[in-house]
Amino acid sequence: MKDTKTLFQHGTLALLVPGLFDGTIKMDEFMKHGDTGIGTGEGLDGELIVVAGVAYQIDGAGNVNKLDSRFTLPFGNMHFADYQPLKQVDGLDFVNFPENILATGGLANSFFSVKLHGTFKTMQTRSIDKQSKPYHTLAECAGKQHVFDGEDKTGTVIAYYAPQLFNGVAVGGFHSHFLADDLSQGGHILDFTGFSGDVELQVFDNLAQSLPVNDPEFKNHDFSKDDIEGAIKASE
Ligand SMILES: [Zn+2]
User: Fold this and answer.
1) What's the rounded Cα separation, in Å, for the pair 144 and 58?
2) Span 6-235 CATH architecture
3) What are the boundaries of each domain within the chain?
């Protein structure tokens, strides 16, 4: 039976802050942990979204590509979907999205995923070109992001929420990626307006944290000097 109560996380966003972008898990291994997820590729090679067991990369040019099993990731979240209907909304904006979901009550201290499907009046996403070594910091790379603006898009948002109390292992708050049904747009969400459609929720009992323990750079990096929260707030 599929474990729908566990959120799998490989790496952490904190690894990306100082520029630890080496791919430390292969797509075929990552996909063993679910059929739904988000992540980024080696060298920040695009934004990833996994919907219904199919993995897509939104590359720096904004193209939506299907991923093969050899693709590697420094960071990703994955789970087996068992979303429950939460509500229908009409005209929800991204700026109000966290408050709208947390108003459900009793969620703030849990890991959970939210799936949206419907239409978005506007959708703004970003992606980053693959970086080459030596890698710069996340903040430096975020300055090179490409921004894509869509209008009247129908598609899916996969969002993960981490409680503030786990800041560090995760980054407190929501991390959301988008994929248009017609594959015309995708990426890490910067903003959307006017979402009308279905909101579904899946709460996790367990967090399975996988670390790149065979990666020499990870093993030897001193994280004590990285402003992890500041850098992620600025670039995510
Ligand atoms: Zn992202």
Assistant:
1) 15
2) 2-Layer Sandwich (3.30)
3) 6-235
d(CA 218, CA 121): 41
Structure tokens that stand for 206 in this block: 């367990």
Ligand 1 centre and the CA of 172: distance in Å?
A: 14
Point out the residues of the chain with pLDDT beneath 70: 236
Rama region for 232: left / alpha / beta (φ>0; ψ in -120 to 50; rest): alpha
Angstrom distance (rounded) from CA 194 to CA 89? 9
Q: How far is the CA of 178 from the centre of ligand 1 (A)?
A: 9
Give the CA count within 13 Å in the CB-facing half-sphere of 13.
26
How far, in Å, is the centroid of ligand 1 from the Cα of 162?
Answer: 14
- Expressed in angstroms and rounded, the spacing between residue 39 Cα and the centre of ligand 1 is 6
How distant, in Å, are the alpha carbons of 30, 95, 118, 147, 210 from that of 74? 11, 28, 30, 22, 11
Q: How many angstroms does the Cα of residue 224 sit away from the middle of ligand 1?
A: 23
Residues paired with 200 in a beta bridge: 85, 115
214 alpha-carbon distance from chain centroid: 23
Are 71 and 57 contacting, i.e. CB atoms less than 8 angstroms apart? yes
In the reported structure, the alpha carbon of residue 141 is separated from the centroid of ligand 1 by a whole-number distance in angstroms of 13
Between the CA of 175 and the centroid of ligand 1 the distance, in Å, is: 6
CA of 190 to the centre of ligand 1 (A): 9
Distance, CA 37 to ligand 1 centroid (Å)?
11
pTM across the whole model: 0.96
Q: Give per-residue pLDDT as tens, 53-96.
A: 999 999 999 999 999 888 999 999 999 999 999 999 999 999 99
Report CA 28 to chain centroid distance, whole Å.
Answer: 18
